[in-house]
Amino acid sequence: MKINAIENAPANSPVSILVIDDNLSNRELLTHRLSKESYHTCAAGSAEEAFSIMDIQKFDCILLDLNMPGMDGFEFLMR
Fold it and tell me: Pairing state of beta strands 6-8 and 40-44?
C-alpha cells in the first residue's frame, strides 16, 4: 500500500502531529500552519492510511476529522 502522506519536518521539532482528514485542502492548510510553528507534521487522507502511517511512526498528537467516508473518526478512535 502506497502512503500518500504530506510531511514537513523541522530539524529540532519536539512535537509530532498526525493530521487525518479526507479533505486535501484542510490537510495542506493544517500541516503548513503547524510546520510554520515548528511542529513535525504528517497527514493522512483516510483512517486506513493513518493506521498504515502509525505502524511505522509514533505521534504526540492526532488531529482527526470525525466525518470521513469509509471509516469515520469515531470508528478510528474505537480501534
Answer: antiparallel
